[in-house]
Fold:
Amino acid sequence: MISALICVVSAAALAQFFVCYCRAVLASTRNVELSERVRELAGVTGRSIGAGDFGRLLQFLFLCPEHNSYQGQVRAVGIYYRMLDIAGRIGGALIPSVAALTERDQIACAHFAAVVLDRRISHSREMFARQASSHP
Amino acid sequence: MLGPFDYWLWAIGFVLEASVVVCVISSRSLTRYYAVAIYMFCRVAIGCLYYLCIARFGIGSEQYHSLYYYTESLLTILLFCVIIQFYQQVFADMGVNRYVRGGASMLLFATALFSYVVIHRHSEHLTKQFVVEFGQNLYFVGVVLTYALWAAILHFRETRARLIHLVLALGLYFSGTAATYALRNLFPSMQSFALQWVPPIFGVLLPLAWGYTFWRVPEEARILRYQLEGRTAR
Structure:
C-alpha cells in the first residue's frame, strides 16, 4: 500500500520536474533573436516560428557536423515536444485551452531548436574559416 | 554477469561524475557548491571501490552486494547534504539556516525509524526486503525534500538559473529512482528484465545534467518565474 502510494507520488513528481526542467532549458533561449540565415534555412522568413517547424529544425540539427554540444538538451526537448504533442491531441479534443497551452510550449521548443541550429552553423563556419586561414 | 551495456553505463557515469568535480572547480564555484563536488567525488571513489570488489570477489558475491547497498544508502544520505546546501542558498537572506539543518536531520531520523519499524514487523525476510524498503524510503524523503525546495524556489521567486537547473535535475533523479524502487517492491519479478536498468540510467543523467549546468549556465544567468510556468511576459 505504502509502496503504491510512493510510486504514484514519485511518478507525478517526476513528470512535473521533467516539465519544469525542459522549461528551464527553453528559457535560456527564449529571448534570443534568430539570424536571417537560420530563418531562411528553416523557411520562416517574414513570419514567426511555429510549433510545426520543430521536426524540420531537428532534421537540420542532426545534419549539422557539430553534434555534441547541447545534444542532451536537444534530446530532452525532443521528448518534451512529443509529450506536448500527445497531450495537445488528447487534451485539446476535450478542453480547447489545453491545445493553446501545449502549442505555446511547442513554439518555444521550435525556437530552442532554431537557436541551437544557429549556434552550430556559426561554430561550423568559424571552424571552416580557421582551417582556411591556417592552410592558405 | 555484467553485459556491455552495464560496462558502458558504468564508464559513462564515472567520466561524467569526475567531470562534474572538474566543472565545479574550474567554474570557481567550489565555495558555493562544495557539497556537490564532495558528493560527486565520493561517487567516483565508490565507483573505483566497486571495480576492485567485482575484480576480486565477482558480481554475484555477497561482499559486492553488501558493499553496493551499504554505499548506496550512504551516498543518498550524502545527497541530503547537497539538498541542505541548496536550501541554505534559497533561504540565505532570511537567516533560517539553523532551522533548515535541524529540520532535515529530523526528517532523516524519522525515515530511518520508520524503515526500522517496517522491517521489524517482517523480520523473517530481512536482507533483500530491508535494502529495497530502506532505499525506497530514503529516495522518497529525497523527493519530498526536493519538492519542498522547488515550492520554496517558486514561492520566493528565486531567479538563479544555475540553482534552478541543479534542483530540477536532483528532483528528476530522486523521483525517478524512488518510483523504480517502489515498483521493485510492488512487482519483484520486474527487476530482472526492466527495472534493473532504470536507477543506473538516472544515475548517469544526474551528473550529465549537473555537468551541463556548471559548464553552460553561468552563475549570473537568471530565469523568471513566468518562464518556468510556460507563460509569456506581460
